[in-house]
Each structure stands twice: as C-alpha cells, then as structure tokens.
Amino acid sequence: MPNKPNEAGRKSPKRKSSSLLLRFSAAMVALAVVGFILGQNQSVAHAFYLATTKQPERFTELYFNNSQNLPTQVTAGLTYSFSYHITNHEAQTESYTSIVTMLQNGRPAQLETTKFSLPDGQGQDVTVHFKAARIGETLELIVSLPANQESIDFRSKS
C-alpha cells in the first residue's frame, strides 16, 4: 500500500520504521556472523581479544643504585664497588643474564656474568667490585642485559 498523506498532510511513518527494522536486522546478522567466525576459529578470537583489550606495558628496569655516588675517581690498585638493580615488569617470570664489562683505555675486560630468574614485579640488586690496574687510565663500566638489548654505563678515571 503506498504511503499516502494523512489528514494533517503528513506522510505516515511506515516507510521510516521498515527502514529502521531492516538496518537493525542487518546489524544483528552481521554480529551473528562475526560471533560464529570467532567461535569457530580460536586464533581469530584471540587476535580479536588482543586487538580490543588494553595490554599492560612489558619492560625490564635496569638502573644503578645510588647513582650519585658512583666511583668516578679511583686510585690504581684499590678495590671499588657499585651496585645495580633489575626489576621484571614482563608479566611473567623472566630469566636474566647480566654482563658487566670494564673498558680500560678502550680495551674490554669482562668482570662478571650473573644469571638469575625473577617473577613478575620482583627485583634484584647486584654488587660489582673492580679495580684500576694503572694510574692515568680512563675506565668505562658497562652493565648490559643482552637479551633485552638494555645497558647502563658510567666512566671513571684513575
């Protein structure tokens, strides 16, 4: 039946309501199809979940403890120390390997390698002892986490 003007001269709302019903039905069918696809394919469902859910930032903290007191002037033959801290924020237990290297006038010498595991949210301090072999050397001490591509360093002079 055609849409005829009513007594007030306005068209009846039949056409508008049928168009709204058609759009609503199409949206429901689209949602049902997406739901079916997601239910049938676990990897698609997981990808959809990851894409629509905020994921926590994952990282590892690496820093010197008491960085204002790092030994920047040393006397040859005396032993000095510094410490650094690693905290795991990777949302799972992580295994770490830290390597401490001392460059003496540009020549590398590995001081120590430390291996340990940390649960998420936990941290560990590591203390390192070193000494300059000769007077007048420029030293650079580097702490690196090769697997995380992170490093920190400081310079000292004897």
How many helical elements?
2
What shape does the CA trace take?
A: rod-shaped
| Estimated radius of gyration | 33 Å
Work out the number of β strands: 7
Mean pLDDT, to the nearest integer, reads: 85
Would you tell me which CATH topology of the largest domain applies? Immunoglobulin-like
Number of domains: 2
- Report helical residue fraction: 10-25%
In CATH terms, the superfamily of the largest domain is Immunoglobulins
Low-confidence stretches: none
Proportion of residues in extended strands: 35-45%
Structural class: alpha+beta
Using the 3D structure, state the CATH architecture of the largest domain: Sandwich
> Largest sheet, described in full?
4 strands, antiparallel
CATH class division of the largest domain? Mainly Beta
Q: What is the terminal separation in angstroms? A: 100 Å
Report strand order across the widest sheet: 4-3-6-7
What's a quick, concise take on this entry?
This protein is an alpha+beta fold and 158 residues long. The protein folds into 2 domains: 14-52; 59-157, Sandwich (Immunoglobulin-like), CATH 2.60.40.
How is the secondary structure organized here?
Elements: H1 14-40, H2 42-52, E1 59-64, E2 80-89, E3 94-104, E4 107-118, E5 123-130, E6 138-145, E7 150-157
Antiparallel strand pairs: 1-2, 2-5, 3-4, 3-6, 6-7
Helix pairs in contact: 1-2
Verbal overview:
The protein is of the alpha+beta class and 158 residues long. It has 2 domains: 14-52; 59-157, Immunoglobulins (Immunoglobulin-like, Sandwich), CATH 2.60.40.10. The chain is built from 2 helices and 7 strands; from the N terminus they run ααβββββββ. Strands 4-3-6-7 form a 4-stranded antiparallel β-sheet, with no helix packed on it. Strands 1-2-5 form a 3-stranded antiparallel β-sheet, with no helix packed on it. β6 and β7 form a beta hairpin. The longest helix is centred in the N-terminal third of the chain and has 27 residues, at 14-40. The termini are far apart.
